[in-house]
Design goal:
This protein has about 325 residues and is an alpha/beta fold. About 40% of the residues lie in helices and about 15% in strands. It has two domains: about 10-55, no CATH class; about 75-305, Alpha-Beta Complex (Spore Coat Polysaccharide Biosynthesis Protein SpsA, Chain A). The strands form three sheets. The protein has a seven-stranded mixed beta sheet, with helices on both faces. Strands 5-12-11 form a three-stranded mixed beta sheet. Strands 7-8 form a two-stranded antiparallel ribbon. The longest helix has 26 residues, at about 5-30. It starts with a helix and ends in a 16-residue tail after the last helix. It binds 2-acetamido-2-deoxy-beta-D-glucopyranose (NAG) (5 copies). It is a single-pass type II membrane protein.
């Protein structure tokens, strides 16, 4: 009989769907430890998603936390470091800096963000980096200062991370930062835990002496917004019609014109510029630090990393000796 065929299919497809759903539920209840089940554990149905496969820097952290089954409660944070394709050494360095931090109770994905590649060697080298680390976002734009790269970044994210796995929002918070800023992820996460996951604008308020986050805007050293504002940037005409100018200030203009961010958090003085040379924006290195900015050379990085004892947990081994 011809008619039985579509009927059966109508039955099979929903069953299959519910079976997958059931597996997902089962997987999230149980502590799934197997890599190949991880995708099911996170309920990523599509095999075509390129962005999910591995968030290399935090991959092991993610696996750990999925294994401990608290993953859907974790804060999900995307840190986008705006940089240029040719900054290979800087990216390598920052991968070490962030790859050696594993904040508890959070999934922090660090990605490097730049515009279209322009040189032949980049097409090979950046492709290799992606194959190895998968932590790069290439936006559809031409590299620019003050011509809308920040807009392209935020407004591209909803599409890029749409349906990349079962979780919504894909990230609770999205950050924009620079490659001369050092974030201490554990402190960042701790500072975010009590804050709203809606309509939030977090950072170091400009001007430097100001402590009022409802005036002006957050410094480009690193600011963070909740996912609803990311979607608003994509959908609203306000940012679209006002792209040119100093990007972080322009960002603050959008927020003001759009009456967004009723929740704001001024992270000063846990965020600050490196103490030297002293200005009104600097602060001494101190334990209560979320971010240090203007790490413009190796000496400043080393002083900062030493201060925070980042190598204290080096495991002993017969293979090396570091006095
Ligand atoms: C996705 O799965 C389909 C069918 O199972 C297969 O034909 C296709 O090649 C897969 N795509 C990728 C990128 O693995
Ligand atoms: C997950 O559990 C293992 C042991 O079961 C533990 O060693 C690890 O520290 C836990 N990870 C987190 C992020 O709590
Ligand atoms: C960026 O590259 C893509 C494909 O490689 C191209 O379609 C697009 O037009 C380019 N965008 C710009 C702004 O050059
Ligand atoms: C995700 O993308 C699909 C197809 O591109 C679209 O139909 C859907 O509305 C999008 N969903 C969200 C939440 O943006
Ligand atoms: C670094 O380690 C030293 C010596 O153990 C300690 O006195 C200091 O408080 C630590 N610094 C920070 C920022 O934790």
């Amino acid at each position: 009989m011809k008619s039985s065929k579509p009927d059966r299919r109508r039955f099979i497809i929903p069953s299959f769907f519910f079976m997958i759903l059931f597996l997902c539920v089962l997987a999230s209840i149980n502590e799934v430890r197997f890599d190949n089940l991880l995708r099911f554990g996170r309920c990523a149905f599509a095999n075509t998603t390129t962005n999910t496969a591995s968030h290399s820097i935090s991959n092991e952290v993610v696996i750990d936390q999925v294994a401990n089954s608290s993953s859907s409660e974790d804060i999900r944070i995307l840190i986008g470091i705006l940089t240029l394709p040719d900054q290979y050494h800087r990216r390598h360095f920052l991968r070490m800096i962030y790859g050696t931090q594993s904040p508890v109770g959070a999934q922090v994905d660090v990605k490097f963000v730049f515009c279209n590649l322009t040189k032949e060697d980049q097409k090979v080298l950046v492709a290799l980096e992606i194959m190895r680390y998968d932590d790069i976002i290439i936006l559809n734009c031409k590299e620019n200062m003050n011509k809308g790269k920040t807009y392209t970044y935020f407004s591209s994210l909803p599409e890029m991370f749409n349906s990349s796995d079962g979780l919504y929002p894909p990230y609770h918070y999205v950050m924009k930062t620079d490659d001369d800023t050092y974030f201490r992820l554990e402190n960042l996460v701790a500072s975010l835990k009590p804050l709203s996951r809606d309509d939030l604008y977090y950072g170091y308020v400009i001007p430097c002496p100001s402590m009022d986050p409802f005036v002006h805007y957050m410094s480009g050293m690193g600011y963070l917004i909740s996912w609803d504002i990311v979607e608003w940037i994509k959908d609203s005409d306000i940012p679209k019609n006002h792209l040119e100018g100093p990007e972080d200030k322009v960002f603050g203009d959008w927020i003001r014109e759009g009456h967004r961010a009723k929740n704001r958090y001024n992270a000063k003085w846990s965020m600050y510029n490196f103490p030297e040379p002293p200005t009104r924006c600097t602060h001494e290195l101190w334990p209560d630090t979320v971010a240090v900015h203007l790490l413009k050379n190796q000496e400043k990085w080393i002083r900062t990393l030493k201060y925070f004892n980042v190598t204290d947990n080096l495991k002993p081994s017969k293979l090396y000796h570091i006095p």
